[in-house]
Design goal:
GO terms for molecular function: glycosyltransferase activity. It comes from Imtechella halotolerans K1. This is Group 1 glycosyl transferase. Keywords: Membrane, Transferase, Transmembrane, Transmembrane helix. The chain has helices at about 15-25, 55-60, 70-75, 80-90, 105, 110-115, 135-145, 185-190, 210-220, 240-255, 270-275, 295-300, 330-340, 345-360, 365-374, and strands spanning about 1-5, 25-30, 45-50, 95-100, 120-125, 130, 150-155, 165-170, 170-175, 195-200, 225-235, 260-265, 280-285, 305, 320-325. By secondary structure, the chain is α/β, with parallel strands linked by helices. The protein folds into 2 domains: about 1-180 and about 360-374, Rossmann fold; about 185-360, 3-Layer(aba) Sandwich (Rossmann fold), CATH 3.40.50. The strands form 3 sheets. A 7-stranded parallel β-sheet has the order 3-2-1-4-5-7-9, with helices on one face. A 6-stranded parallel β-sheet has the order 12-11-10-13-14-15, with helices on both faces. Helix 9 crosses helix 13. The chain starts with a strand and ends with a helix. The model has no long low-confidence stretch (mean pLDDT about 90).
């Protein structure tokens, strides 16, 4: 089957799906608004959507591309209508999977979706279950899917704690992210040691909560614990680069250089090295739509500390393979010390992470759900 993805960028949360599609013999192409600097392009090179003359002039005279994040760029960049349609027609895909949102590239597709609904599949990170109905979003979704005639899936079951009177968005099909186990149970047990090693993987931006993590690490160090913390992040624009420098200065000022290591723009295919040498993964972010990094960490047998303000926090079994916490310094400190106080609990949670990947997020089972919907 020839499958075309159209999205803001080729995100790492779609890497496993694309890899599986290739292995099953499908012809996969990716059409994007921008190229990130931390994705893995070894198996697939995305094609940039051609933009209009208006967008080119705006970028030339009012904005430098180095100042704009790919996501922000997607919100205002207007594709060249003629070239956009021409290239989609030339690809002649059997199925077209589109990342939904109020983006110009998506809205321009609606006439094609209306004419060829059976060829389209929508993807978003809206939760299937909600405590409160968002009427504006519901109206938008009903309109752009032509009264839910277009199949639609999401990797998010719910945000936070869900009530008994939850609202089921019936038009959304839940298909979680998936991964292979990347480590054996035997290797996990033999690699445990006295010094607990923490890992954070996130973009260098404020909402990722890295400043809170550094502050918590400082409190823990002052409490006499011995540990290490590696932070791997991406920059990609001037704003994030400046934020990285701010964090580096904070580590220097707190004299935490012997505890905290800051890395930036590590290629995706090198991330396995970082997952293998650490034991606990931390994602202290806020307003996180649906991160895939904690699942990647679970596939390498790491225990997980994740804030509840994350669309995929429910992938973690609280108290079994990790801790779901509030996004503040005190909660981060308590969670980290929880693992520092007991190596036995830490190892149990690491082993459970591998078990959850094997049973709950199996590639074969999730791939079947995807193909059934397709």
């Amino acid at each position: 089957m020839k499958i075309l993805f159209i999205a803001p960028r080729f995100h790492t949360n779609q890497y496993s799906l694309v890899e599986k599609l290739f292995k099953e013999g499908h012809d996969v192409k990716f059409y994007v608004m921008g190229i990130g600097n931390s994705e893995d392009y070894r198996d697939l090179t995305p094609t940039l959507i051609p933009v209009s003359l208006f967008t080119k002039l705006y970028l030339r005279y009012f904005k430098g591309r180095s100042e704009i994040d790919v996501f922000d760029y997607t919100r205002f960049a207007l594709p060249s209508f003629r070239k956009y349609y021409k290239e989609i027609k030339a690809i002649n895909a059997d199925k077209i999977i589109v990342r939904v949102g109020s983006y110009p590239y998506f809205l321009l597709l609606l006439p094609l979706v209306f004419l060829f609904r059976k060829r389209f599949l929508y993807y978003s990170q809206h939760p299937k279950y909600q405590n409160v109905r968002n009427w504006k979003r519901q109206l938008f979704n009903r309109i752009v899917s032509f009264n839910y005639m277009v199949p639609w899936y999401t990797p998010v079951l719910h945000y936070g704690n869900i009530s008994k009177n939850k609202i089921n968005n019936h038009y959304l099909h839940y298909i979680p992210f998936f991964s292979n186990s990347n480590r054996s149970y035997k290797d996990l047990i033999s690699s445990s040691n006295e010094k607990v090693r923490f890992l954070c993987v996130a973009k260098y931006e404020n909402r990722k909560g890295i400043e809170n993590l550094i502050s918590a690490a400082n409190l823990i160090r002052n409490n006499g614990y011995i540990f290490s913390l590696t932070i791997v992040g991406s920059t990609g624009n001037l704003k994030r680069e400046n934020y990285y420098l701010k964090l580096k200065a904070k580590v220097d000022n707190l004299k935490l250089n012997d505890v905290i290591e800051l890395e930036k723009n590590v290629p995706y295919f090198n991330m396995g090295h970082y997952y293998k040498r650490n034991q606990v993964f931390i994602l202290p972010s806020t307003n996180e739509p649906a991160s895939v990094s904690q699942m990647e960490a679970m596939s390498y047998g790491l225990a997980i500390i994740c804030t509840e303000d994350n669309g995929t926090a429910h992938y973690i079994k609280h108290g079994k393979n990790g801790l779901v916490i509030k996004p503040n310094i005190k909660s981060i400190e308590i969670a980290m010390e929880y693992y520092l106080k007991s190596q036995d609990i830490l190892l149990d949670h690491q082993i459970k992470s591998l078990s959850i990947i094997d049973h709950d997020f199996s590639i074969d089972n999730t791939y079947k759900l995807f193909m059934d919907l397709l």
